[in-house]
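Input record, target 12 of the design panel.
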């Protein structure tokens, strides 16, 4: 699947005290130091991931425009036009004759922002930092070798190796912890059409962070599927995805004192995949949130997956294209 990378889950500093000063909201009492400020959420398993185990190397790029602009306006922060960039590098390796796989991914995060023209003495420097290191594994529970349909299960661990503040930016708060994501994945093929998706949970290891349920489903169609082994372009597959992110805890995003709070979000993903010589797939996509408050106004994603070993052409056919 292409994914939606939502929610990013970070809020900017609020302005308090004399003009030009920034900081958290006024302390609610003697336990003010326990107020959580999350900026880093783990990657969802559906981000550039197939329910099918694969042998591949991949590079991802995601751009998010106007991150948390609606919540920041509600919080009356003196910062706007926050833009986030993520560069992801990773690999996946199969085992047990392709029935299972394990892998890792590591992001590099970048954040830019502008102070409001009326805000004096506020600086918003651009920051870049290596993010959290992710480990994942999945295994096929049941498969139909004739159609390529399957059901799989797995686990994603996101380790807090990156800075608490997204990209290390000093103008956003941070809460970073180990998280666990168990999930189920599925692929159902119907000729040139297919449906696939993931359902899973996001369990943080501290109560101050938010517990989520993710439901991601995608529909794709083989606009082109070449049987010519010498062809350069072997498949073109448009896809449409719906991503529903439902928090179980910290649901009151109106509460300015609960920086872990997020709202239910629904994001729509429109993408197209180009397969080259059955050994690489280039994906381009546009993601748009349709619920309020929006985690971002729009997102652009570009992925490159290069396959080797069992997944490469001539060993096991790629059906459906793995990034869908």
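The sequence produced for target 12 reads:
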């Amino acid at each position: 699947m292409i994914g939606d990378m939502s929610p990013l889950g970070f809020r900017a500093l609020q302005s308090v005290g004399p003009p030009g000063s920034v900081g958290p909201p006024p302390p609610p009492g003697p336990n003010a130091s326990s107020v959580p400020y999350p900026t880093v959420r783990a990657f969802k398993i559906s981000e550039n991931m197939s329910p099918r185990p694969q042998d591949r190397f991949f590079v991802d790029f995601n751009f998010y425009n106007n991150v948390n602009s609606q919540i920041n306006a509600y919080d009356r922060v003196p910062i706007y036009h926050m833009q986030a960039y993520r560069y992801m590098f990773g690999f996946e390796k199969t085992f047990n004759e392709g029935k299972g796989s394990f892998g890792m991914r590591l992001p590099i995060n970048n954040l830019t922002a502008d102070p409001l023209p009326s805000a004096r003495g506020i600086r918003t420097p651009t920051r870049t930092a290596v993010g959290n290191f992710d480990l994942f594994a999945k295994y096929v529970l049941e498969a139909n070798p004739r159609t390529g349909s399957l059901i799989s299960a797995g686990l994603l661990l996101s380790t807090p190796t990156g800075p608490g503040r997204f990209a290390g930016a000093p103008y956003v708060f941070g809460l970073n912890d180990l998280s666990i994501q168990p999930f189920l994945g599925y692929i159902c093929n119907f000729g040139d059409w297919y449906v696939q998706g993931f359902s899973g949970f996001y369990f943080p290891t501290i109560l101050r962070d938010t517990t989520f349920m993710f439901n991601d489903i995608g529909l794709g169609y083989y606009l082109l599927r070449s049987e010519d082994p010498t062809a350069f372009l072997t498949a073109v597959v448009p896809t449409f995805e719906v991503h529903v992110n439902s928090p179980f805890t910290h649901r009151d995003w109106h509460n300015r004192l609960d920086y872990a709070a997020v709202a239910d979000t629904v994001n729509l993903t429109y993408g197209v995949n180009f397969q080259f010589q059955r050994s690489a797939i280039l994906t381009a996509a546009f993601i748009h949130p349709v619920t309020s408050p929006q985690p971002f106004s729009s997102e652009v994603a570009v992925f490159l997956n290069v396959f080797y070993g069992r997944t490469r052409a001539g060993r096991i056919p790629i059906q459906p294209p793995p990034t869908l």
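Helices lie at 69-74.
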